[in-house]
Amino acid sequence: MVDRNLLLYKIINWGVNGKLYFAIKQIYNVTKASVRINGELTDWFVIGNGVKQRDTLDSTSFLFYIHDLVETLNGLDIGINIDGKKFTLYFMQMMWC
Questions:
Q1: 51 vs 21, 26, 39, 70, CA distance in Å?
Q2: At what angle do helices 58-75 and 89-96 cross, to 10 degrees?
Q3: Which listed site, 10, 45, 66, 90, has its alpha carbon 20 to 30 Å from 76?
Q4: Is the pTM of this model over 0.70?
């Protein structure tokens, strides 16, 4: 699960600041959700972790969050060989997003 404080810290370390950083911070300030069960919506509840789903920033936010993990794993030369070509975690991550 994505810790939002850590996500914002990582975004700052990537050099995102000013109005853009403030806008991203506001997107995650108070996030509420409801669940549809048998066609009925539950009461709204606050979500304090994770990236918003179906949001324009969801994939980008997740990439900011896991970038250092991907860099570490790629440094270990981890990947999948297919027909003699090596696909790294970074490549697979970009294909997923």
A1: 15, 13, 25, 18
A2: 170
A3: 10
A4: no
